[in-house]
Every structure is written in structure tokens, then in C-alpha cells.
Amino acid sequence: MITSIPIPILIVLCLTLGLAPFFPEPHLLEKLRMLFNGTLTKPVDIFDLVMHGLPFVLLAVRLAAEVLKRSG
């Protein structure tokens, strides 16, 4: 379950896998730019977007679960 994943681990994943490679620019930013420009068409680019974006999605879901648990 998502609530069993420690938040610090997700933060480390975001800072490492989510932002790799650091130079010249993170893949996630490049792939998001391609998505918004409509040029994200190759399967490898879509895979890159999912792989580098997944840690951020998991962190957002984990934080949302934490907020909902505390409020209700």
C-alpha cells in the first residue's frame, strides 16, 4: 500500500531518478516540454516520461494520503 512507503524514500527517488540526468537538463523537464509541444511521440520518450515522472506521482499520492488521514 502507498502509505507504507516512507516519505523520505520518495523524496530521495524524486531527487535522483526523477531528476536524472542532471546535465544538460533533467529528462523529466525535457519530456514535459515535448509533451506540451506535441512532439512526445516515440515510445522511448513516453517510457522516459513515465519512468522519471513516477517518483513525483507517488510522492504526491503519498502526501495526499497523509493529509486525508490526518483530516479525517
Model description:
The protein has 72 residues and is mainly α. 69% of the residues lie in helices and 0% in strands.
Radius of gyration: 14 Å
Major sheet characteristics: none
Helix vs. strand class: mainly alpha
How much of the residues is beta strand, in percent?
under 5%
- CA-based shape: elongated
Order of helices and strands: HHH
Kindly report how far apart the N and C termini lie. Answer: 18 Å
Unreliable residue runs: none
Number of strands: 0
Helix run count:
3
Average pLDDT: 94
Helix percent reads 55-70%
Quick gist of this model?
This protein is an all-alpha fold. Helices cover 69% and strands 0% of the residues.
SSE diagram, text form:
Elements: H1 7-16, H2 27-37, H3 43-71
Helix pairs in contact: 1-3, 2-3
List keywords for this structure.
72 residues, mainly alpha, 3 helices, 69% helix, 0% strand
